[in-house]
């Protein structure tokens, strides 16, 4: 497990267009995510201990913002052949079993991860209503122990966008396992 941190965000950058298939075989592209105050694009996977540690919090957050003009989408770009837990079939099983409240897309070629500049799992990108990057950082300040959380960075950023405000320019990087490149 190689610990990787996300680079400083390029705030204001446009959301890369993408066209991927979900783990339940539905096509999605950026155009499917319209009329939002915030679009949360998350690079996640099944096998990463950092994602596993925050998964329940992430699902709770997505459920909390349902109906608030906030759209979440998960993307797995890991090499599913060398990391079988991250195969499309296993991603689907997790998505269905844990009732992910958002589409979970499979980036087989890893081009979408490259277009976004994603480097690790989890890697969070939040876009405003104009699809410009407003936040790239961590979920919260205690990835490992939920009881020690003081600051909920991702939630705070989303709430700013709902209020038509900009999240703080100083953003703490996310950290996790490096994306498993082909």
Number of strands: 10
How are helices and strands ordered from N to C? EEEEHEHEHEEEHE
Give the low-pLDDT segments: none
Q: Give the N-to-C terminal Cα separation.
A: 16 Å
Helix/strand class: alpha+beta
Estimate nothing, just give the exact number of structural domains: 1
Main sheet strand line-up: 3-2-6-5-4-8-9
Q: Can you give the helix content as a percent range? A: 10-25%
Output the CATH class name: Alpha Beta
Radius of gyration over alpha carbons? 15 Å
Please tell me the overall pLDDT. Answer: 96
The CATH homologous superfamily corresponds to: Glutaredoxin
Total number of helices: 4
Largest beta-sheet characterization: 7 strands, mixed
CATH topology: Glutaredoxin
Describe the structure.
By secondary structure, this protein is α+β, with helices and mostly antiparallel strands. The chain has a single domain, classed as Glutaredoxin. It has helices at residues 49-64, 88-97, 111-116, 153-162; strands at residues 3-5, 19-22, 27-29, 38-43, 70-76, 104-106, 120-121, 123-127, 133-137, 175-178. The strands form 2 sheets. Strands 3-2-6-5-4-8-9 form a 7-stranded mixed β-sheet, with helices on one face. The chain has a 3-stranded antiparallel β-sheet with strand order 1-10-7, covered by helices on one side.
């Amino acid at each position: 497990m190689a610990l990787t941190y996300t680079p400083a965000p390029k705030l204001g950058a446009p959301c890369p267009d993408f066209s991927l298939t979900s783990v339940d075989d539905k096509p999605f592209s950026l155009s499917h995510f319209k009329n939002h105050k915030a679009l949360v694009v998350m690079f996640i996977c099944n096998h990463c201990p950092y994602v596993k540690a925050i998964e329940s919090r992430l699902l709770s957050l997505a459920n909390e913002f349902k109906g608030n003009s906030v759209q979440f989408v998960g993307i797995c770009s890991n090499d599913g052949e060398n990391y079988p837990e991250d195969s499309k079939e296993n991603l689907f099983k997790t998505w269905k079993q844990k009732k992910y409240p958002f589409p979970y897309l499979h980036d087989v070629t890893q081009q979408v991860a490259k277009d976004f500049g994603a480097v690790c799992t989890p890697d969070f990108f939040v876009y405003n209503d104009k699809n410009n990057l407003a936040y790239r950082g961590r979920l919260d300040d205690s990835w490992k122990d939920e009881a020690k959380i003081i600051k909920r960075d991702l939630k705070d950023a989303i709430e700013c966008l709902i209020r038509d405000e900009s999240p703080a320019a100083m953003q703490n990087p996310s950290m996790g396992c490096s994306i498993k490149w082909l």
